[in-house]
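Supplementary Methods, section 5.1.

A reviewer requested that the exact input to the structure prediction be made available. We therefore reproduce it here, unchanged from the version used in the analyses.
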Amino acid sequence: GKSGTEYFHHQIKLLEKNYKDPNKMTIIFMDKKKRDIVFDDTRTREEFFQTVSQIKHIHKSEKDVKTVSVFCCTWNMGEVEPVSDIIHLFDDQGDHICGYSNQAKVAHDIYAIGSQEANITEKDWVNLIKRALGHKHPSVQYNLVGSQTLAGIRIVVLVKSDHINKVSNPEYSLVKTGVGGMVGNKGAVAVSFAFGSTNMAFVSCHLAARAERKLKRNQMYQDISRQLNLGRKSKFSSFDLPLRFDHLFWLGDLNYRLDCEYREVLERIKVGDYNGLMKYDQLKAQQMQGNVFYDFKEGEINFPPSYRYKRGSRDDYVYIKYKTTGNVHNVPSYCDRILLHSLPQLKQTQTGYFSNLQYKASDHAPVIATYQVSTRLQYVSSKNTDVENENDDSLKIRFPILQAKIKTNSPDRFCVKFFSYLLEGTPTSKPAPRVLAEYNEELSSF
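The structure derived from this sequence is encoded token-by-token as follows.
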């Protein structure tokens, strides 16, 4: 730096890029002190980042973490205060587990617990989770990455203490989608952070109820996706939330219902025909039409609908909900869901998807999903045996095919803009017609 101060690689814990200022970077030292550096341009910042990362990579004493295990839970708590011991909420196997799990008794690297209609303070809930994990995995310690609350909607994310040095850039956001967008009974909360060089986000949401409001739920999802102020929004403001993160975990009471007769649902539940219920599932139908959760993945559902159980039981469902405004009929449905969106080239394996029938005070059963997801290495090696010309230091990106979903009837021609912190400016392709074959020819000359 200009001050002439010297720093050694073993003193640096992490390099933290500033996504609001592409020329700025923060150095975090082992003693937790920080120093901000502003570069002349983005290219210089990237060169510095790669150089320091390479030095640390050469002299590192620990192995890179290539995959992490993630435990996600969504639980509509029904405005009932939880029991004092929730250790069984983190079970992977047992008579109270319905579904599949390939990672029994694993102490996961990351735990994310989303809740709706919670009737407990954020502080007490975090302490209850940490205490339960401590009893479940006594040899492992967990640190709180962050939590966020909107009325009864909450998200809590914890990471193994062994990995806490890899966590940076924590951010928190919320969106109200209740009446007029002003009420917090419906909406979403989120926590995001960088795990090394891998950007992750966790969203917990509560969407509009009742079977006939699926279009309202679709709109709420779109509003949340655009309005959550997380990640690289300063430069990628026109991008929806899934494109700002390497891995985006979305959990919550999505409230999508089964468009099926009550008796048929009960008959299929009785014989365990959960796959047969999926053809009636509103969320699956809306996904197939490209209206919501585009390119999100969800594991196979092999457990009974998580709503609406009779409180105190996990054997019976309640069809009629009595309200002062009129009775509401509720077909048992998969309201509580967990989905994952990952960017290309990043692997994801869902190792479990199940409901937990241990806790019966709410009319919802907790739903859990577990994953193994790949991470990016902070240092990217420049060695490449496939380079056509060793003396050519330029980077070429070739698109064999590009598919675009046009949501407007005009204009007849369109272009593609390329956004990246590694690019100087915003390269734009030549205007091309809507016909894909002709467009490919235009793109090849870009």
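The chain has seven helices and 19 strands. These observations are discussed further in the main text.
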